[in-house]
Amino acid sequence: MTESRHPRVLCIVVECDLEAVALRAFLDCATGMTINVTLRGVATSYQLTDALCAAADEADLVVITCHGDDEGIILEELAPGVLGPDQPFEARVGPEQIRARVRLHGQTVVATGCSLGTAEMARAFLGAGAGYYVAAAGDPEGWAGPLLLALLCHEWLVRGRALPEALKRIAAYDAELALFRGWGRDAAGAVVGLPEGG
Fold this sequence. Notes:
It is a single chain. The chain is an alpha/beta fold. The chain has one domain (8-81, 88-193): Rossmann fold (3-Layer(aba) Sandwich), CATH 3.40.50. The chain contains 6 helices and 10 strands, in the order βαβαββββαβαβααββ. The chain has a 7-stranded mixed sheet, sandwiched between helices. A 3-stranded antiparallel sheet has the order 4-5-6.
């Protein structure tokens, strides 16, 4: 995150639009509207990966409000005729699509969906250029995603704590929040989970 300007947050809304609206309202209230929050809705896998690529120039923090499982980010099936014949519907965006289609420049990516905090997904995002990746290693209760986002933005963006320290403090708050794990790179460039509780 660049210190010379206010942080920019891009919230990509795959589903869970209330999480996105709550995050924007929280940041507007907590910071006096000094953090630029952009909401972008997506419906297809290519819209999602295109939005992630656009984040390379538009945001410091990228939040994906979504549902997930051990295969990836879940996309809702579209009505017949919405996609053209050359646009196959992909029900999930997993590590393969992230590796093949996403390029980032050091942004932190937070995914709120269940089971997206796997080493494979982390390697995909970090390999695509993310500075950090944060997601749930299991299936937290539905309220945990919005609370994680509010606490993370408060600890990291508002209070200025380092991301690993912010995640450690959040994990101590509640067992559901402790399911969210952070991933980054060590000094040698290897993908590593942040310290336990972070």
